[in-house]
Amino acid sequence: MAVNIKDDGSFEIIYGGQFTGLNVQAPPNLIKDTECTAMSNIMLRNAAIQSRPIFLGGLSGIPLGSSPIAVGYIASDLSGKAHTFIVDNLGKLYVYDEIPNTWDLVGNGDNTNGNTSLANWRVFGGILYYVHGTPSVISWDASTNTLTPNVVSVGGNNVGAFLIDELDQHVLLANTLEGAGPTAHPIRIRWSAIGLPTMFDPSVNINAGFNDFIDVSDFICGMMMLGTVGYLFHQTGITQVSPTGQGSSPFQFDHIWNSPDGSSGFWPHTICQYGQIGAFVSKENVYLVQNYSFTPIGGNARDAIMRDAFLSSSLYQPFSGSVLGSIIPIYRDGYVHLVYQIIMSPVSLNTRIYEYSIESGYWEIYDLPSTTNIGAVCRPFVCQL
Amino acid sequence: MAAAPSVTETRFIALYGCADGQVRYFSPDSSFDDPLASSSITFKSEDILANRVPTIRRIIITYIDLGIVTIQLTIRGSNDFGDVVSNQGNFTFGNSFPTNALLVAICDLTVSCYLPQLSIFRAQGAGPLSISTIVMVGTIEKDQTL
Description:
The structure holds two protein chains of two kinds.
Chain A: E1 10-15, E2 21-22, E3 35-36, E4 38-40, E5 42-43, E6 49-51, E7 54-59, E8 69-74, E9 83-87, E10 93-97, E11 102-107, E12 120-124, E13 127-131, E14 138-141, E15 146-148, E16 153-154, E17 157-167, E18 170-178, E19 183-191, E20 209-212, E21 220-225, E22 230-234, E23 237-243, E24 251-258, E25 272-274, E26 277-281, E27 286-290, E28 293-296, H1 302-312, E29 323-332, E30 335-344, E31 352-357, E32 363-367, E33 378-379, E34 381-384
Parallel strand pairs in A: 2-3, 8-33
Antiparallel strand pairs in A: 5-6, 8-9, 9-10, 10-11, 12-13, 13-14, 14-15, 16-17, 17-18, 18-19, 19-20, 21-22, 22-23, 23-24, 25-26, 26-27, 27-28, 29-30, 30-31, 31-32
Chain B: E1 12-17, E2 23-27, E3 39-45, E4 55-64, E5 69-78, E6 84-93, E7 102-112, E8 114-122, E9 130-139
Antiparallel strand pairs in B: 1-2, 3-8, 4-7, 4-9, 5-6, 5-8
């Protein structure tokens, strides 16, 4: 906007209103007065320029070297109680103990093949099920504090996976590992019989089944289930999953796109959702998924995000967890800040969080000091304490 | 077997696991003055009038009083010789007993340069900052012939 110069040669330049965040994609003299060329640890919430809230600690007890970790929450177990838990990269499960404010080890889960990828979890019928790239689905009944590995087997072979989710009351496993060895099936999705979260054997129950995407030359790296439809992410495309209601073939799979030249290239652990809103980072932009459409949101911060993501990680280390994403609706009860956070550790920097305001459509940056590093460590989640 | 420990408090918080084994969270209830992290923002380089060198004399900051904060203001630009020129100053405002009122701070800072660009820096632990508007005030030779 042109500066208004008065007759006496004086002028005022006003910076105010809803600030619109980072713009690295135009020369500094061509951006708007509401934008900025650089920022760190500034919040633009509610049209202010505010130093971000303090990053507090105090909940200790996670063993060092156990990253990346998944933080999660069960709203109601079989006895109606809530639990906040952590699964580390070795598959160990910890539960938060309100008094005396510590994390208690529940059990070691499964780590038979030494995999150290970020755990993926889902609560179904009050029971927690989680996987982390081993040939085992692990369940935890919090009401009895019973941790059970290998709860899924097909034809006598234990089945695990990198990914777990749920659609239409079927539990879904994707990018599976099966049997002794184990044998990897990176393009396989399995679904349980409806309402039976551990019944995956179609020779026992025809409502269970599996599909190998033989027309896909890569691997499944993420799932996003948005109520009546779901999306399977693989490295060169996205496949829509639609429930059919038919017993022997309960899902229909349609590639939204599937191209060998790669039209995606996702960082797997940036694929996330909050309610009907999904988000992910691909190799050329950041996308928001709403109303079954994909909207690029990298905007004027896109180049900085892409640069730092590539400095943080090799794109094709699919489950390294070095670029993570989560949609955070609140910092705490009553303090709404609906944002998509992309967490990474670019070379020469500590943890950097790119934060996109889903309400107001701007990007802001948080840089955390080394003592509070979370890059490549944790995918945040809203939990009860 | 006994049930697992459960949580009974009703507060929900976004939790982050950290490399030092702690679980942390952003706490707007506690403070906007992180003692470990600084804050900064850099605004637009202002094209005010072609081929004229403006002089910035004052920065007027309207802020919400969350407590005492010290910031460093920097104005950076260039001169006729292609040199980068800048001036900066530290300014402290706010009250030790935060009023949460909207207050105004006058910050006198003079620099003459092309394309003046304002930056704000708050050092770690230098206080909580919440700015509503910033006005950069200056003069320029408007009627000089080319």
